[in-house]
Specification:
It is built from 10 helices and 9 strands. With 286 residues, it is of the alpha/beta class. The site of ligand C2E has 23 residues, from strand 2, helix 2, helix 3, strand 4 and strand 6. It is found in: Cell membrane.
């Protein structure tokens, strides 16, 4: 009897694993198709200068409306794209779309010349030997000013080959492109490394912002990161700002910029345009 039960369990386990593997394979295929057919979208989340109340730019965020499964979040499809190498064509498409969108806004709204468009880069894209060619192409085809493009790298990327990374980041910097370090505070990068890289901006991870108002020690971390950024001549952007209380606190600490649902969720390009149109009346920071 025990033997039979064991066998049954084994089979059920096997079947579930099989279903999961099949499911994953299906999703990979769907993603490959979606990229080929340009079914993914780019959404834009406003980034606000909280000291002046003015719009400072947008972060481009990938969106995948799946025809059967509904909306699949980037936290689910980006890892699949990274594991399969699909991040290379997907990342290039997002970069091109975002540059093109900002360049289009620039033609209608001269004030948009002050905005930056931030694009997330995964480590595979940074290691792509054709990265510079692709970045140059996206800028040339769109006609966007180089200094209006900002590339975001997560802090964990700094753990990779430091020398190699420095070379590529300096080449991007020399082209006039801005560089941001994303999700700062969640990785394990040594603070003493930071000045070795040509970053313009530190983005404070939203997990620190969420806990504002809870207990004291977390606030010291935020204050330390803002002061660090200032000493290294970088801007600080707080991510995931959701309340007036968080905003007031960050303003007092002289954090320059913020993004989060308090100002706006990531928006379709049409909805994002309303932000440019109404700026600066729309944004309440006082
Ligand atoms: P991220 O680059 O740190 O982007 C910020 C994330 O925080 C976005 O999640 C955004 O929607 C979310 N967010 C913004 N404000 C708030 C808020 O007030 N509250 C909360 N709870 N969340 C907020 P999203 O769009 O789901 O993207 C998740 C991550 O996926 C991104 O984190 C980024 O690491 C990655 N990702 C998204 N698009 C791309 C892309 O085109 N390329 C690459 N390589 N990664 C991407
Ligand atoms: Mg980002
Ligand atoms: Mg982030
Ligand atoms: Mg994040």
């Amino acid at each position: 009897r025990a033997k039979n039960r064991g066998k049954a369990c084994f089979e059920i386990f096997n079947e579930r694993m099989y279903t999961q593997a099949l499911d994953r394979l299906q999703l990979e295929n769907d993603l490959r198709q979606a990229i080929a057919n340009q079914q993914l979208q780019v959404f834009y989340q406003p980034i606000v200068n909280i000291q002046t109340g003015k719009l400072s730019g947008f972060e481009a965020l990938g969106r995948w409306p799946h025809p059967q499964r509904g909306f699949i979040p980037p936290t689910e499809f980006i890892p699949i794209a990274e594991e399969t190498g699909l991040i290379i064509p997907l990342g290039e498409w997002i970069l091109q779309s975002a540059c093109q969108q900002m360049a289009t806004w620039l033609q209608t709204y001269p004030s948009a010349v002050k905005y930056t468009i931030s694009v997330n880069m995964s480590i595979k894209q940074l290691k792509d030997p054709n990265l510079l060619t692709k970045v140059d192409r996206a800028l040339e085809q769109s006609g966007l000013n180089r200094h209006q493009l900002s590339l975001e790298l997560t802090e964990s990327i700094l753990m990779e080959n430091v020398i190699e990374l420095k070379v590529i980041l300096n080449q991007l910097k020399e082209r006039g492109i801005q560089l941001s370090i994303d999700d700062f505070g969640t990785g394990y990068s040594s603070l003493s490394y930071l000045h070795l890289f040509p970053f313009n901006t530190i983005k404070i991870d939203q997990s620190f912002i969420t806990r504002i108002g809870a207990q004291g020690e977390n606030q010291e971390i935020i204050e330390t990161i803002i002061n660090l950024a200032s000493q290294l001549n970088m801007d600080a952007i707080s991510e995931g700002v959701e309340s007036k209380q968080q905003l007031n606190y960050l303003k007092k600490l002289l954090c320059q910029k913020a993004q989060g649902n308090y100002f706006s969720q990531p928006l379709s390009s049409d909805a994002a345009e309303v932000f440019i149109l109404n700026n600066p009346q729309l944004i309440q920071v006082h």
